[in-house]
Amino acid sequence: MTDHELKLTLAMVVLFLPLLAAVGIGLGARRWRGLSAGLSLGATVIAFVCSLILFIKFHGAPADIVPATDAAFHGIQWLQLGDFSVDFAALIDPLSLLMMLIVTTVGTLVQIFSLAYMRTDAGYSRYFAGLSLFLFSMLGIVLASNLLLLFIFWELVGVSSYLLISHWFEKPAAADAGKKAFITNRIGDFGFLLGILLVWQLHGTLDIIELSNIGAVTTAAGLLIFCGAVGKSAQFPLHVWLPDAMEGPTPVSALIHAATMVAAGVYMLCKLFFLFTPDALVIISWIGGITALLAALMAIQQNDIKRILAYSTLSQLGYMVMAVGCAGPAASMFHLTTHAAFKALLFLGAGAVIYSCHHEQDIWKLGGLRKKLPLTYRAFVTGALALAGFPLMSGFFSKDAILAQAFMANQPLFYLGVAVALLTAFYMMRCVLVAFHGEPRGEAARDAHEAPGEMTGPLIFLSILSIGLGWHFFGLNDFLLNKNIWLGTTITGAVIPNEITHTAHLAAMISGTIASLAGLALGWVAYRGVKQDPLPGMLGALARGMRDKFYFDELYAWLNRWTQERLARYADCFDRWIIAGLGVRGSSGAVDLTGCLLRLVQSGNLQTYALLLALGLLVMLTFFLF
Amino acid sequence: MSPLTYIFGWPILMALVLMAVPRENRSVFRWGAILATLGSLVLALFVFAKFEPINDLTSINHGYAFVQTAEWIPSLGISFHVGVDGVSMLLVLMAALVAFAAACCAGGIKAREKEFSILLLLMTGGILGAFMALDIFLMYFLHELALIPTFIMIGVWGRGENREFAAYKTTLYLSLGALLALVGLIMIYLHYETFNLPEIIHRVQSTQPDLMTTGQQGLIFALLMFGLGILVGLWPFHTWAPLAYGAAPTATAMMHAGVIKKFGLFMIIRVALPILPDGAQQWLPVLAWLCLGNLLYCGLVAMRQRDLNGLIGNSSVAHMGFVFLGIASMTLIGLTGAVMVMVAHGLLAALAFALSGHLHQQARTLDMDKLGGLLTVMPFWGTLLLMALLAGCGLPGFANFAGEITVFFGAWKTMPLITGIAAWAALVIGAVYMLRAARQLLHGPRADDAPHTEDIPGWHKLPFIILLGALLLFGFAPKLLTNKIETARESLEHVVEMYKRK
Amino acid sequence: MNLSLISLEIGVALLGVLVLLAGLWTPPHRRSALGFCTALGLTVLLALLVKQGMAIETLTDSSGGFVRDGLAVFFKALFLLAGILVTLLTMGFANRLRTGGAEVYALNCFALCGMLFAASANSFVMLFVAIELITITFYVLTSLQSHRLRSLEAGIKYLILGAAASAVMVFGIALIYGSAHTLQFNLIADGLAAGHMKQLLLFQLGALLLLAGLAFKIAAVPFQIWAPDVYQGAPAPVTAFLAIGSKAAGFVLLLRVLYTAFQVQPDGPRLLEPTAMFSVMAAATIIFGSLCALRQRNLKRLLGYASIASAGYVLLGIVALNERGAAAVLVYLAGYLFAVIAAFTVISILTPEDEDEDLSILANLHKRSPLMALTLTLAVASLAGIPPLAGFLGKFLLLRAVIEPAATFPWLVAVALLGVVASLYYYFGIIREIFWGTGQWWTEKAPETAAIKLADSQVVVLVVCVLGMLAVGLYPQPILEIANAAVQGLGL
Amino acid sequence: MTDVGLEHYLVVSAALFCLGLLGVVIRRNLIVMYMSLELMLNAANLALVSFSHHQPPSPHGSPLDGQIMVFFIITVAAAEVAVGLALIVALYRKRQTTDVADLTSMKL
Questions:
Q1: What is the DSSP string of A568-587?
Q2: pLDDT (average), residues A592-609
Q3: pTM, entire model
């Protein structure tokens, strides 16, 4: 078996096994809960193993498209019309190998965790089918070799996310959240689609490899493509769906809304880095920065443990996008990887807490869990420290890389980044202190007991990754800094990812450490042993604003009501009253009325008839004779 | 004899046979209809499989396969003339699929089964024949044969308070459309003195390209565009559609929304575009803007619907906008996309109306405010409805997406603004109303006073599965569609070339 | 004088006289045998006519006033067929007449005789006599149910207005005679062609008055005023005969006068402006007939208005001023024959003795008599122009004729389309009453449900009409050929 | 003595015709209306006869045509009168009236 064939086989196994699992569950396995879970988990584990083999074996190889270069597989065309063709082919480059590995790893862990977490759920089989479908779609994004294929899987992850968020569809909040997520994503996808169309018009191709040989052409195309990432990675101004998506089961939040799907936007930006002009990058970086700051501020005043994590996810995604904008896709991918580990850890930890505390999610009703759930506590703290960028944790290194990029590209963003790092440390400290320390403040917290092994096992594994992923020993950073793994950077005129200078490195390291420690310290001071949140008293209106997410939901609801809904109402009224009413009924009524009037002529009186006859004759003679 | 003749002759023959059966034998009618449509379906699949492209436009059959001709009214230049190319082949297959599904779904009819079955079969035969006719008169004639049962079925077996109004409005509206188109067709005939479609097209494209002046072409094209547009629900002539589908019995709504409505579009592609390239040049820009009326405006109207059928009806009108956009783009890609959307939407509309028909049969209401949480009580139905709704908002994996995206690619280069607005309507507005329906009907808690509903039993699932299966099949492998359309490529290219000639 | 030329007319007249005489000795309960004999006799005559064939050689008598060409033969066959069907239809109705059980058959024969002459008229003398024979007979026929005030009233209205129209026409003939110095069609044409026409204004005035008289016969606006009342008041079989026979006679005379005598052609001498006149007339007729019928509940009156609208459509074929138009008129009338007779047969059976022919009498018809329901539905669909019935073909041909590239009247076509759409509304109303009518909602009376027993003669009429509509609609090739050949003689 | 020419006859004829028409239009009694109709027919007769009399020699058509026509008209008119009067009598026996205003059972 040649390398090429091996690559192809493994990639296809990775991609299609989850789909087969989903189809299998849908077609009949859903009647047996264990079989469904087994199918799904088995597929994911095999996919994980294959990904691992692929990564180890090929992580240094240049980008390769399978099977389009393989004559035997040339037939797999999804669509072909003249000069417009969409090949179903996988683009395997080091970046996609890394992403595959991340997705399958987290996927495996989350599924193991779910075995216990969802055990009593009525929609157990449906849940695993959804997860498998999601994994298929996500891996499709990772492997897609052209933009349209990417868009297809992009949409499919959207729908699997929709299905999983509204898994508990009887709950109105969950159902609404799913809908909101899907529609908000669709707004981003709208831009994405236009971007694809524009790229096709300007470049004449949609194939990523071919595109990478052309490079960026206009700012507009890049920005439109970026719209897709704004939607999927929940960037400002389309960030509103992600917190609501926490209505889904917690493992889903861990997998989809923390580690993988929301990172797909960042992944796409990194992979298509060559499509962005410097102007586009500036805008991208600012969007990322704003998202990071806003989300961090909002996170400070949230009380739901999952929502805190959701806002922190938003904030970290903003970080990654900012890094891409600062011409640092390597830093971005680095943070994406570490973030996947520690945020999955945090979410699963939160899941364990929620599981143990009978679905109590308000941190002010928890407390004192440190003693009841020691293992979970340790895991959660590990994750929190990693997220806060505590020195030598994985998050420290990746955040450091991003700050360094920002330092070189855009100084204001650097300071913004530092501020965000401080805020991050602060709210994570708040979360840990309030939820785990002190005395239990609610029934649920008092009765809590440690979760079973299926749940703690993944926690331990992820804790290890969260600590060590950034170390030089893992080689992740070096791997990403290798220029060869980036598409399109070899052509002339392309934007080259920045190389981090020593000064930047130093500045980032020092300010990052200080921010992290300062944030943790502030949090310790503010929340040590408190019974209720002291911040609203100190900050007043600002704290309210943070708690109410700066009123974005209200703003959008208002906007929607005043634009689209109002238009819809006008259209409906127009339809009902003007077209169907005035137009159709009106004209038929007019005809009817004319008919009634005309009939008056037939008065029944012979004399009138004779008169009309004579008049008719007269009219006829007048008209046609003279 | 060509197998095509059997495909559409078989249901008509069955209708005639059923006329002689006494009305007491209720099940005979039901099974007769199913059997006849199944026969057509099997034959259509056979033809689909055997179909071999004949790309030689100069051949005696002008690139059509399975051609059969016979004299009918020679003194008017009218003949019995059937044949298929890639485009009509797909529509025939889709029509046969939907007809079979509709016959299976006709079980809800509990009164006058005899007449219903006969009308359904006439409808099926008529529309199948209309898609394969190569004589313009025959085409029109068979379409009318399919259209008229619609009116009767809405009037007799329709539901709701205003079914009579719906029947009247539909009749008058659609007849007006058909008549306008007829005037246009007669005007074409007066120039060429024949109704033989391939011959006329051949003369337009090679020997007599300038037989009609630009002004005449413009007039005729306008007549065809608006006449056929009324049949399809082109904005602003669409208000009959939601009304009619709201009142029509399930099988009728499936057949009409799914298949018969496609005829207007088919005729624009088949007759108006090739014969009237100059007319097309004058009017297609107008059509491009009108299609936004469908996509955007009807989408917005659909957002306001409280009734499931109203929503599906409006959305089905909205989806016609894609086809119009594809036609207006006048590119090979756009036209291909238009045909794909026609096929996909035919299957989808039939599926959606079949589902809403089942719900109505169970709950006696389609008011979305009164229903909720149905996914728990009717998992199979609910899953299918969810998939249909998602297909309706253009989710990849369903044939609709393949068609819509192709249309966008076809239209983008020439009309970026319109395509952009259309994409907004497709991606966002479509998602808003489709998911709203899912949220209200399937999700959420069940109301305490919700009517008792039961899932689709046993073999009754078959038609649903067939329709959904076809949607998924063509969605995952749109090449199955494009391969067939590709065989008509040369003639489509001719059309595009003629269009761009000036 | 070659008697064999008019043998058909003689035969029909003789048949009428024989029936009248036989009626004297026939006891009242055997009267239907008279009808049967009449129908048989007419059938034999029709068979003879067909056997002589549509021999399309033009034969004229020595004086030139009578012509027997394709057109004449076509219409003679049409009239005879109508006569046979109406006679059969009358057999079922005769017991309602109270008086004149035998006379009705004889009068039918005489009217038919007039029509046969009209089909062959080639001079104004013949035209006048034929028309008067038809009209005066119809005065009597209309008021034959003299115990019904409506019948009598209709007769008198028809009489006064019809006589006035005749007087107008005759005055027109006089003026034409004054300017052309002859009453023979082809001689007038020769005179026109040779430019002998001196007093042009006189001729035009005369022609207009003459056309007004003919327009009265076909009930075209503004001379439609009599039609609704007479259609409503006359006994149903008479209305049927009036609707097809009298109207078709009007049209054959119109064709002859316009094309043979006046030689109007699209590019001919501009003595008249027939195109403008007839297009306005057609449009007004279509609009008036269609709109007035919309809210009409009396079935016969409704069909009266509908027949006005139909006359408008037929006029479209005359507007076209070409062979196609003329042929379309012929085919349309052939289809119209079956539809109208079918409709009036059903009405004649259903109409209660002393009541209105309100639409509600149709309620439950599909249960009471499926054959009648089917026939009436098809008849109405055919009148509305729905394929695959004869009416569709007729309207198709008329539209085709009027949409000629040379003479486009966009507004006229638009009016015609609107008329068709409006007509769908009221025809659909009839079908609705048949299948899901609920009877008279304003009274508490439940609709009749008793099954209706049809007489054999009525079944024959219904079946013939259904077959006729379907045959003309589905396989029109033969009739098209005949019609095309028939209009050759018009000199277009 | 003034020569009475074709024009004079025609003027009289036209006047008669118009008078007849006017009579039909304005009179309410059926019998009088009927008489007016006869007047119109006779106007036509007068015109025909005078045309026939003043017809110049012409290659086609006999000058007697017009007068033959007149005989036909008179005959037909007689038949018409017979039928008409019978109807009016029948009406009178049924309704005791000959006023047209009473004949409006069918309208609209």
A1: HHHHHHIIIIIIIIIIIIHH
A2: 88
A3: 0.90
